[in-house]
Every structure is written in structure tokens, then in C-alpha cells.
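Same chain as my last thread, 734 residues:
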Amino acid sequence: MMFGQTQLPKATHQKHNCKRGWVSMAGTAVYITWVTASLLGGILLMPFFRPAGKRVTLAGFVDMFRRYWLHIALVFSIYLWKDLLDGLDRILMANTHLDMTPFVYAIEGDLVLWVQQTFLNDMLTFVLTHYYVAGYMLLTYTASLYFTYFDDRWMADRVLLSMFFVYALAVPFYLFFNVRVTGDHIPEMQALAYHLTPEIQTWFTRIDPFTNGMPSLHIGIPFTVWLGLHRWDHDERWRKYRIFVGVYIAITAFTIIYLGIHWFVDIVGGIIVSFLAVNLADKYHAWLWYRLDERTFNARLAWLLADFNNPKRVLSGWMSRSVQWLKTPSTTQTGTAVMLLLATTGGVLLYDATHQDFPADGVTYPEAAAGADGWLVALDADENGNLSAVIIDIENDKTYHNNLDLNEDGNQSQWGVINASTEVLISENHAVVWQGYRIITLKFSNPGTHAYGRTTGPLYTDLALLDDSNDKQAKLFAIDDGVVIDLQSTAPYEVFTSIPDDDVNLIDGEGNSLAWVTESSPMTANILSLDGVQNTLSVQVNATVDSAKDEQVLALTGAIVDYANASITGISFDKNHLVAEVNLSAVSRLVMVNLDTGEQRIIGDPLFPVANPSIGHGVVAWQHKWGLNSMDPNDAELDWDVKYHIILENHSYQLHTEDEFNQTEPQVMEGYIAWLQDSGGEEPPEVIIYSLEETFEPYSSRTLQIAIITLIPLLTIWMIQRQRENIDSTDEEE
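reply #2:
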């Protein structure tokens, strides 16, 4: 059975070079263009929105930063917190799969889809995509700029603090109430903004986890500004600006629905957190800005540092007031205790939920590892470089060690081989360690027994391990000079005639099936089932994407995506799917094929390098260098990270935040993913095991139990205090 492949027309080298500068500029300039347009737009609109009697001068900007630098820093700290919490949210989603989108869809249905399909228009999509980003920046900049530049401290104290509170109130929803964008949930819905161009798609993918729908900050922030103006602008000096913000909110509400980003419920959530934020700012602005007033901040700091006794006096006074505050219990103190208890418990659970991986026990310096089902086999080197196999039964938490009589340097000089590579192959019931001329078999049915080894005649170029259906015998196949050899045959070096090709360069095994690729058909993966009647399935893999993305690969790497010389360099498969790693010179891509229907899709980002796919139990894992710009790399993009894809959900999850650790050779097991992690010499490498199941450590369970028990008396005390305070208040009024 063959599945057809279409290829993009091969452009000439001259055409690629002509476009290269434009693509590179577009990839780096789109964000700068939005920022610049927003800043210039905000400045150009200042004369129109300025209060009566105010002027716009260049010197005013210097005074603005001098008088309001803490106000401005408070608002723009949101962007710093967002980067940190978005990374945390990606890991939390990967570990817990907390997805509330189905509940939102149950409420709304296809209402957002009707809006998009009714107004769908290419020009409207183009305009609103840029408006979605640049308009939001413009609103944020102007709200921070106008009140501070025109020295309206009354409004600046309240509105800027309200904007900060909006994001603070949204954080728990973003972490624990994940709602996906509509274009990622409704099949017919398109995420128009995210896919306008490859450059914009990459930018959005870099900064947005696509799960922070509820509440919408594109509504929450501007509605907070509008509501604050409505509440605090008593003399109507900002009337024109309030009307402008109101119009912006109306257009933005339509925009975020039309572009396939937000639900109507997200808009409601944005309005609610805006109302809460404005009320919090009204209550706490005086307390905060009395202490952080820029006009007195430097003087207070100078006084504090002028005499060593001054900090002691401040600390002593603060402690004395705190003790006095605790001596007069009321709903304020009890409510604070409840909030601290909830925050502490939530922090412990959040830490546990974002730390679902652990190092494998019994492995001190791993060289390689492989996993299948509930077994993990790692090669461990001692101080002399001698290798042993560490066999880990993950479910039963047992570890076995086997000496291999091999050295990590791969020196087999007695057979004329120096520095032979060492690999581990694994199946359901067996593992094989292969180094040069040595093949050593391990049996999981008796993992503590001495490993059985053999010495091969020829030096094979690849090896595949299968499991016999009776679970007693491991089947080994090898490639010798392009020909597949059956190593279980009674005749030595017997050619496996079921595969007649003489130019095989890659083989892999799964269960009782064998897959291979030939040099003459480098984009065709063949699978032979050895159960009963032997059947062969041939799949022609298609790794093409649209030409715009290929142009962006050219800008990122300086090399052309070479479809004409594409080749499969790695395969992993199970009964239902095959994943092929395709080398396209400029980049490598992963293509997943449904073996029943022939449907093919690219998983991972087709713009960036991927390697070492592993599939099993409905999960695909691989290593990638997402965001790598080979023309101008940074350290955080140079290391490999592990990502995994749940086939049934059709969603991929990132397992790591940005770091400088190399996570390589991921292995999918039943309920787990394992990989090698190397810090680059600072610490010994580790084998890391990640649990796909949501589990809480005992300390988290105990923390939750203690919190629930403690909440009962605290809430009871709070209600009694509240009733007493209400009675006292009524008596005073009478």
C-alpha cells in the first residue's frame, strides 16, 4: 500500500537569495514594528487627549520618569511576570492536562464559529491581526503614559495599580483554569491571527501558551482603564480618552472572537476581574503609594541609610505594630490567616504538580538509555569507564545491575575497531546492548542473571530488536552491507529473504514487526509483519509544508529546504502509527503516519530541528531545539529539550522551561517518558523519568489534609467575628 507524496516546486537558488533578506527582516521586525507603531501612535495622540491647560514638550518625558518611575515599573512588571508564569503554565499543562475548554464549549457551543464564518474576509483578518497586538500595546502604553506625563497623580495612583491587580487576579485562572483558544478547540474554527504568516505564528508560539483564555486581558486591561476613568475622573478632564478606550473595547471584543482566540465567556471574565481590580485599587492605593511615593522615596532611603539605628527603629516599630495587630483579632486577621493558608497550600501543590520528573536510582554516570513498557535500561560507567547495565523495573521500584565487560571508550582493537559507539535497544521482554562486534542480550523475565553476549562476524551498520509472540525469544536483525541478516537463523549470517532489498540503510523493530528504509527510496518506510502471513506496508512519507515556512527556515538557517534529497533518518512505530524523522538539509521534521488510514501530519514545529522520536501507548516524544536561529543563536536555544504529543488529544506539550541542560534520547514507556539529561559538565548526567500520570507526593497530600482541617475552625471563627462586627456596627448607628 502506497500513500502519495506531493512536493513543492523547487525554486532557483537566485530566487531564494533575493528573498532571504526580506524574510529575515520580517522575522525579526514584526514585533519591533508593532512596538514602534504603538509608541509613536500614543505620542501623536497626546495633543488630542491632553487635559485642558496642559502642553506636550520633550522635557515633560524626563519629568515623567523622574516623578513616576515606580508607577511605570509596576505596570510593566506584568510583562516580566507573564514570561515566568507562561513557562510555568506550559509545564503545569504538560503535567496535569488541566483543560476547562470542554466546559466552556458546553456553555457556548459554536457561537464564536458563527461570528467568524459570517464576517470572514482576508483583508479584515490582516487588519485585525495587527490591531490585536499593536492596539493592545497602544492602550497599555497610553494608559501608563498619559496620567503620568500630564502629572495627574490622582488618576495614576489608582488606574495603574488597577492594571496591575487585573493581571494578579488573572494568574490563578491561567494556572489552574486553562481555557484554550477557540481556534485550537473547535475543528472548523481557524486561529486566524496565529497563522497569518509564519513569522507571526512563530512569534505567537514563543510568547503564548494558547491556554490563557480566561479571563481575557485584552478586555480586562482596557475595561479597567475605562471603569477607572468612569469612577475617578470627577471633573471629566479625560472624557475624550474615556470615549476612545470605550471604542477600543468594543472593537477588541469583536476582534478576539473573530480571530479565533477568545470565547464570549473570556470577555465576561475580563469584565469581572476589571471590576474587582478597580475596587482593590480604590481600597489600597493610599496605603501603597504613601510608602512608594517617588517624590519622597529618595529622601526616605537616604534617611534610612544615614544611620545604622534607623533601620533598627523601623524594624522594631514594624514588629511592635504587628504584635499589636495580632493582639486584637478581627475578621481582618482571620481572613489574612485563611488567605495565607490557601496561598501556602496552593504553592505546595503547584510545586508538586510542576515537578513530575525524578532521577533514576542506581545510575551514577549514564552513557545511554532505552525504555519500553515498565522497563528502563541504562548504561552506567564507573570511574574506570567500565560499563554495566542498570535494569529498572519502574512499577515495582526494583533495580538490577549486570556487568557487560565493555568499556565506554568502545575500544575493540583486537578486532580492529577503536571508539565503537554503544547503543541500547529494548522491547517488551528483552534489551540488547550493542557495541561494535559485541551484542549482549538481557532478559526481563530474569533480570538479575548474567547477561548473554555474542561476538559477530561482520561489523553491522544497524540492528533491530523484536519480541517473539511467545515472549520467550528475542529476534535480532542486522544490516550487513545493505542486506538484512536474520541473527536467529541456525545458519550463520543468513540473508533475511523476506526483505529482498540490497541497499537497506535503516531498520527498526516493534513487537513482531520490522521496519526498514532503503537508499534508493529514502522517503519510503516499509513495515513487515512477521505474525502469521507476512504482510508488507509501504508508506511514502511527506514532509512538505507551505513555501512561506520554508522561506522562514532559509532565514533562520541560511540553507534551503532540500526536498529533492530528503531522506528518513530515524523511525519509530507501533501497531497504529509510524513516526519518521526526515532530514531536509536545512532542518529535520517529524512526520506521523496513521497506518490504518494513511493520514499524515507533521508534529512539532517544522521550522526547527527535531530528533530521536519515540512512540508508544498513544504518546510520541522527541527532542527539539525550538526557537533556534542558527544565524544568530543564543545559549537557551542551543540545547535539546524534550516535548511530547498525545495522539488522541492531538496536542503537544513542552516539558521544560528555558534552560541550558541537554535533554536527549527520549523514550516512551507505559505511563512514563525517560531521557538523558546533561548539564554540560557542571554535574554528572542523569537519567530522568517523567510520570505521565497526575500524582501527588505524600507531603502534598498531607499538606492538603492539614489545610482542609485547619480551614474548618478558621472559617467558623471568621463568620462569628463577622457577625459580631455587624452587630457592633448596627449598635453604633442606633
